[in-house]
Each structure stands twice: as C-alpha cells, then as structure tokens.
Amino acid sequence: MTSSKTRPARAAYRCGECGHEVAKWVGRCPECQAWGTVDEIAAARPALARIRTAGPPRIPARPIGQVDIEVARAVTTGVDELDRVLGGGIVPGAVVLLAGEPGVGKSTLLLEVAHRWAEGSGRPSLYITGEESAGQVRLRAERTGNLHDDLWLAAESELSALLGHVDAVRPGLLIVDSVQTISSVEVDGSAGGVTQVRAMAAALVALAKERDLPVVLVGHVTKDGSVAGPRLMEHLVDVVLHFEGDRHSTLRLVRGVKNRFGPADEVGCFELREDGIVGVPDPSGLFLNRRDVDVAGTAVTVVMEGKRPLLSEVQALVSKSYLPAPRRAVSGLDSARVAMALAVLDKRAKLRLGEQDVYAATVGGMRVIEPAADLAVALAVASAYRDTPIPAGLVVIGEVGLAGEVRRVPNVARRLAEAARLGFTKALVPPDSGELPAEVRHVVVPDLGSALAELEG
Fold this sequence. Notes:
This protein is an alpha/beta fold. It folds into 3 domains: 10-45; 72-281, Rossmann fold (3-Layer(aba) Sandwich), CATH 3.40.50; 286-456, Ribosomal Protein S5, domain 2, CATH 3.30.230.10. It contains 10 helices and 21 strands. Helix 7 (335-348) packs across helix 8 (374-386). The longest helix is centred in the middle third of the chain and has 18 residues, at 194-211. 39% of the residues are buried.
C-alpha cells in the first residue's frame, strides 16, 4: 500500500476568471459559470516542514527615510494624454498593461510611444511584436511617421528569444505586443492559455523589477470587455489601462483602471487618423452636436472622467409602439439607470411610457455611466415625449432617486465652469451644491417635478 507520504500529488484544475479549483476538468466553472476558462495547473508541492534561510538578501533592508526616491521618478513618454493617465509618465521598473478590443488602435498608440521615447529620452526603445511580422510594423511606422534609428523592432513569440533581444539592445523602454502571444517551452500549455499567460506575465514583471526597465504589455479582452487571461495578471502589473473606442468613430479613450503610482480614474483622449494617433487635450466639443434650431429630446450634461469635466449630449426618442412589448434601446448609457429613469417618470411625473418605444443614446460615441447624468436622461425623455425642445444654453446636472428627488453630485462647481467656458448660460443643479461660478445662472431643483416645471416655465 502506498503511504500518504509517498502518494503522488494529484493534478488540479483552476478557473482563469475567478480562481476556483476543481479536482477534474469541466467545461463550465461551477463558481462563476464561465465557459472554457478551466485549465490544468501544476500539482502542488508538499509543504516544507522547516524553512531555512538562503543567505543574506541581495538588497538589505533600510529605514524608509533612507530609500532613494529619485530612481522612482516618473519619466515622460512624450505623449501628453498618456502621461496624464499614468500620473505624469512611466516609472522605471513599472509594468503597464494596455487592454482593448481588436482594431481599436493599441499598436498604433504604442508605436507612437516607442517613437517619442526613442526621440526624446536618449535611450533606445524595443518593440516586440508577436502578432505581426516586422515588415508589417515597418509599413505602419512609415505611414504614421514613426521611424527612428533608436526604435528597435523584433518579431518574436518565444520568451528566451525575447530576453536575448533585451540583453542585446539594452532598451530604456520595452513594449510587448501582446502578452498572449508570448510563450515558453518550459511551461505547460499552449500560447495564450491561462498557465502560459500567467508565467509570461510573472517573467516580464520580474525582468522589469530586476533591471528598472519600464515594460508595456498589450492585452486582449473578452466579449464582455474584461482583460483576457487569469485575473492574477492584473494583480501582478503596476498599471492597468483600458483602450476604448467605437470603430465607427475616430475618438479613442485611455481609461486608468489601476495605478500604483498615480490616480486610477484618469482618462486620456485621442483621435485616430489615417496618419496616426494624436492627443485631444480639449475633447468637450466632440460630444456636442451643434444645431441652428432646438430639437426636442436632447439635453446636455457634464460628466467627470477622472478629474476632467466633459460636456455630453444625451438624446432620446419616444414613439408609439406597435409591439406587444415596447422596445427600450440604449447606446452609450447605463441601461439599468435609463430603465430606472423611465420608471420614475412614469410614476412621479405621470408620463405614460408603457405603450411607447424609447430610444436613448449619447453623441460622439461617449459612454456615460455616471449617476450625475440621470436628470439629463429624464429630461431628454420628457422633452421627446412632450415634443418640447430644451433651451440650447441649458445644462442639466443631478442624480435622480426612486422617490423622484434630485440628489447632490460632486464637483458641481468644476462642471459649471467647464459649461461656462463653452458658452452655456443656465444650469439646473441639485440642492447643496456649494458655491457655484457666477458665469452660469443656476436654478436649484429639489425633485424631478421642479425640473420639469422649470422647463415648462
């Protein structure tokens, strides 16, 4: 009989989404119900009965006041909008994960970053591509004007060869496009699998920390927009950025999700053109639709994207439904909050929307999920239902509760200052908004009924 001490460890399986472990492979995770995310993991080693020291540490511990902070100062990438999101630049030894949908422009942006770094830092940048050939990247660099003698390029998908390129070039910035295409023969599993991605991310993080080398990793996303691969990868890296944008629009947003060196809620705006990608330092006008005459069903609000106030136009269309279940279509807005606004309008404002098709959307491809846009959504729907235009110089800010009350939102003064800069002269604001700029005449509306009455007046 095999004793418990000599019994071999059994293989286990782990879900790449939630980390739940099971004894045998299943197609669907029993914990998070995700399909195709369960992968085999290496058998666990037996616990050590006694831990021994491995000699003196490589870098001894020091009092925190004696730690040199100059080596951790952020270095600018040369792309202002990206530096805004990163908190002033990229820190030596930091690992940045940039995730986005296929074709949104991740490679174009990072090729621009590699060019700016080679041009301005005095140290070479190394661009590793695992998805395209070197010739394809060279053609894109010529089209976008990103050729430079200190921008080094290699088409590689094996980890040991990648490390060899780093030793040969000794770059100041390493870009890997993408982490899902890099693999190693020493790690089980296929390229892009949970085990391989976890190992490659850990190896590149160790490389960055050991050499104080800033590394930017490109990551794929799943159908629901989350980063593909194990969740552990997002914990390992220092910064997680999401690159967002509609394929039918030239506007692109880089949104900070995690940042150990700066704010995690900043947003950078870019415009994707045929000759490359450029930053948009003042994007508010892109989300407004200028008209000579007022149109029913439109309302303008101000949302906060990180620390930046942006004006956004909300549009609504209400028409009689000929279907047993009226249609509710939402684009660029939170569908749950739009449904709540419709219910409040029906119950508190007596707008009979039960037999109406309701369409709600934003202008310019912007996604608005902030509660401060609730009042704008409600007034746009009411304007479309009554076929009464909202005045062009009016901006609407406030969160709507289930009782119909208009709740306070943060940074009202900064929002109105941005509205005044773009020519708006009147605003509907919630109570207790603090001291507001005098350039915009503000009207306090405690509830939805007061806001509707103000529009009628």
